[in-house]
From TrEMBL:
This is ribose-5-phosphate isomerase. PANTHER family: RIBOSE-5-PHOSPHATE ISOMERASE 3, CHLOROPLASTIC-RELATED. It catalyses: aldehydo-D-ribose 5-phosphate = D-ribulose 5-phosphate. NCBIfam families: PRK00702.1, rpiA. It is an enzyme of class 5 (isomerase). The keyword Isomerase applies. HAMAP family: Rib_5P_isom_A. The keyword Hydrolase does not apply. Its EC number is 5.3.1.6. Pathway: Carbohydrate degradation. One of its GO terms (molecular function) is ribose-5-phosphate isomerase activity. Pfam families: Rib_5-P_isom_A (PF06026). Keywords: Isomerase, Signal.
Amino acid sequence: VSQDELKKQVGYQAVDDYVKSGMVVGLGTGSTAYFAVERVGELLKSGELKDIVCIPTSVRTKEQAESLGIPLVTLDTHSKLDVAIDGADEVDPDLNLVKGGGGALLREKMVEVMADKFIVIVDESKLCDGLGPGFPVPVEITPFCHEHTMRQVASLPSCAGCKPVLRMGSSSNNQVDGDEIAVTDNGNYIVDLHFDEPIKDARKMAEDIKKVVGVVDHGLFCDMSTAVIIAGSEGVYKKEP
Ligand code: DER
């Protein structure tokens, strides 16, 4: 089974299991969340889902949702959501996540902390024993004196041993391979913190990074997952905290 097929399976399963008519639904960002958005559009079109409004977590998810005719609102009018569905770059045994590979971590976290249920959808390549080595931790920082802020984050005791890399990319879509500094939907930069060893205390690191003045937010999503739906070679299964 191709990885895309696995992503489609979990994206569709999450919508079928958790999205009901009348709900306010957070739509995630990335290649797995793409399929969840696709499924919402399909069920609205068929009439199986009615009266839902959705909150996109990035410009590109907003554009995909608009192309499918999905009714959209924002947190300004809907601070509470029934469910949010999104992918992740890494999932540890406690279902803490690294997110932000797609550069959307701020809007994702703003939406997902307000959802009664946050459903994470991954293929099993995202599962790890400890966050860090498998995927660098993204940190969204303000462009003003970004070298300074990078240094402040990298020198945190809880980030000891990390290698900070400013994310480069063509500013339109945050691709990593560009020759200019990538800019998020919010006009900020991203520093990716590379770790050789598993992070010992992700919760402590999350707190410490957030306290650095100049940091907007980071890709450690601790104690937020309601359930993780995983597509593996043996089929789809669910883990709950
Ligand atoms: O950038 C993000 O937070 C994405 O949700 C990422 O964590 C997962 O993207 P993928 O489904 O394309 O791997």
